[in-house]
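Dear H.,

Thanks for agreeing to be a second pair of eyes. The structure we're designing against is below in token form, covering all 471 positions.
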């Protein structure tokens, strides 16, 4: 049966302050000439590739300029490429560089600031660096912004444990990476460098984490149990930069980086929310059937799959077809769903089976047994990696022939629980919610490359490049 999803609402995220003002394209193009990898962040901040930060000031009156040019700068007669402390453009926009003076972040302190500066205004939901000090004679640019004092430390809680004997040697794709770990036994996010098994520090949280995902090596999106807010954490300065409020509890998050979208479930509201990662705002609320869980996005980004926890019915949402809702059928005790080569693969944790369904016809293709307690799936090229927890085996299923071709033994004597891919590599990590171990598998060679200790259990793990802090 097919049903068309109803858009319940299309709305912008409500917040105490106005939304970040986008940097005008003319100004973006000007900066990109010298710094083509500049990040024009959703809140208005401008981050050059080396993480030099500029604060844009919107003028009280815009002077239309056919060709954008620098009217004045400090130091005088400096170009954009020289990264001056202040730039005033001929359209009256101003850039102030965040500078470090005696260990404190501030902006240029001028005895008689130009009118273009004193009459301008910062974007009113811009994320300012921790401890930024605005000179007294520039307080007018703040508007309604709540500027923190220098004692503010963000979310970081340092780990006092001696870490000198906790070194490990990571496999090549994990070198220089950082792990953000939700343990399930502690509210805080544990931050672990890939060459260590001990958390370096933690990011303090006020509620028990439900799900955590990263975007663009810059942000963490975090949902919590019994809490109707999703937090957006900036990794560059370890602060909550935005709180996204829902009418009911948000639960599972899926990131579609290619389309700069996150999908967020709320089972109690029978809803899937569409969230823009460019503007960090809610764009749509999609009403679906049932209480959605076991959320999955197809590799091509065209279909979402979920399970109704009340009926065990599987539903597909066709994202490229006006959000058409398609009933796939009911299966018992579903652990995970995957979609490959036009077929849906469904694992049952208690039945120890994989069922295969043709997507177009909803016809049942076949079902066969796998090792005990299949708990997770990962699709790579034409293979499915099936994590069977009881015997700590990863079985490899070829999706062209639908046969098991390999069995990879983890040899950890632990009940593995999750598969996490390592971005831009052929590696996946197998983690454990009860034991401090993780294994790395190469999905190309189909080999267990390494098993490493980790000092905390892993309910959810996020792997990023080591994040540079704002200068």
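And this is the sequence the design step returned. I haven't edited it by hand at all.
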């Amino acid at each position: 049966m097919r049903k068309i999803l109803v858009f319940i609402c299309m709305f912008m995220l409500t917040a105490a302050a106005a939304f970040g003002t986008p940097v005008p394209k003319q100004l973006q193009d000007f900066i990109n000439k010298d710094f083509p990898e500049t990040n024009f962040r959703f809140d208005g901040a401008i981050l050059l590739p080396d993480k030099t930060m500029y604060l844009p000031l919107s003028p009280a009156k815009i002077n239309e300029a056919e060709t954008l040019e620098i009217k004045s700068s400090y130091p005088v007669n400096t170009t954009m490429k020289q990264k001056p402390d202040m730039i005033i453009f001929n359209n009256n926009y101003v850039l102030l560089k965040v500078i470090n003076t005696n260990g404190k972040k501030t902006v240029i302190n001028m005895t008689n600031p130009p009118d273009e500066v004193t009459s301008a205004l910062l974007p009113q939901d811009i994320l300012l660096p921790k401890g930024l000090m605005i000179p007294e004679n520039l307080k007018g640019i703040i508007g309604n912004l709540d500027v923190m004092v220098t004692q503010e430390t963000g979310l970081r809680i340092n780990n006092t444990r001696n870490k000198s004997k906790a070194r490990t040697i990571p496999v090549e794709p994990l070198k220089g990476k950082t792990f953000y770990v939700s343990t399930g036994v502690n509210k805080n996010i544990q931050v672990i460098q890939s060459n260590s098994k001990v958390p370096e520090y933690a990011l303090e949280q006020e509620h028990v984490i439900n799900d955590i995902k990263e975007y663009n090596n810059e942000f963490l999106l975090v949902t919590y149990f019994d809490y109707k807010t999703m937090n957006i954490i900036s990794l560059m300065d370890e602060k909550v930069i935005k709180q996204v409020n829902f009418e009911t509890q948000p639960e599972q998050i899926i990131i579609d980086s290619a389309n700069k979208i996150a999908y967020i479930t709320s089972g109690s509201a029978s809803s899937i929310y569409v969230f823009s990662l460019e503007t960090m705002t809610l764009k749509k609320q999609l009403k679906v059937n049932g209480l959605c869980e076991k959320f999955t996005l197809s590799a091509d980004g065209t279909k979402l799959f979920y399970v109704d926890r009340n009926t065990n019915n599987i539903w597909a949402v066709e994202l490229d077809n006006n959000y058409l809702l398609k009933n796939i059928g009911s299966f018992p005790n579903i652990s995970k769903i995957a979609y490959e080569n036009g077929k849906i693969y469904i694992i049952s944790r208690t039945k120890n089976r994989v069922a295969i369904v043709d997507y177009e016809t909803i016809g049942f293709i076949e079902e066969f047994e796998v090792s005990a307690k299949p708990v997770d799936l990962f699709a790579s090229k034409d293979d499915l990696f099936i994590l069977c927890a009881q015997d700590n085996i990863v079985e490899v299923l070829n999706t062209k022939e639908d046969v098991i071709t390999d069995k990879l033994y983890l040899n950890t004597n632990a009940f593995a629980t999750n598969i996490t891919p390592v971005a831009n590599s052929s590696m996946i990590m197998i983690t454990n919610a009860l034991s401090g171990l993780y294994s790395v598998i190469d999905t190309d060679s189909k080999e267990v490359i390494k098993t490493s200790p980790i000092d905390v259990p892993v309910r959810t793990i996020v792997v990023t490049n080591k994040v540079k802090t704002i200068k």
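Two observations from my side: The radius of gyration is 25 Å. The first strand starts at residue 2 and ends at 4.

Warmly,
E.
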